[in-house]
Amino acid sequence: MWDRLSEAVGTRLLMIRFEDKFERGVPDVHHVHSSGASGWLELKSLVKLPREVPLLRAADFRPEQALWANRYVRHGGRAGLLLRVVENDVWVYWRARAEVSWCSWIRSTATEQVLEAADAVWRGGFDPDELVEALCV
Q1: Which residue has the higher pLDDT, 82 or 58?
Q2: Which residues contact 48 (CB under 8 A, 6 or more apart)?
Q3: Which of 39, 112, 131, 132 is most exposed, with minimal Cβ within 10 Å?
Q4: The domain at 2-136 falls in which architecture?
């Protein structure tokens, strides 16, 4: 997922893959645009959409990741979650918002509701320009 994302986005954004071994919940990628807009992006992938398990639980989106994003955006930062569903090559992006608790989404929210709350959905691959715009708004 990272290779495809970084290759498609190219020079539109500086994207740095990040792995923090000390603090739990830090997202996978830091990005910055030439306009100065920057943020963090958590990457998740599923083979196919789950039928019986909430979407974000199936994608192994953990509570500490949700809490990190919530804390970060409450202090004015940008953070989001990009999920790829390999079956049909569907990409879904959610921007974290201080007023929305992803923790409750993980536990109980049905897949359809989580998808309806997405900021962007691409079927058959994502549009790099649209993704960059979504990340920098």
Answers
A1: 82
A2: 85, 86, 87
A3: 112
A4: 3-Layer(aba) Sandwich (3.40)
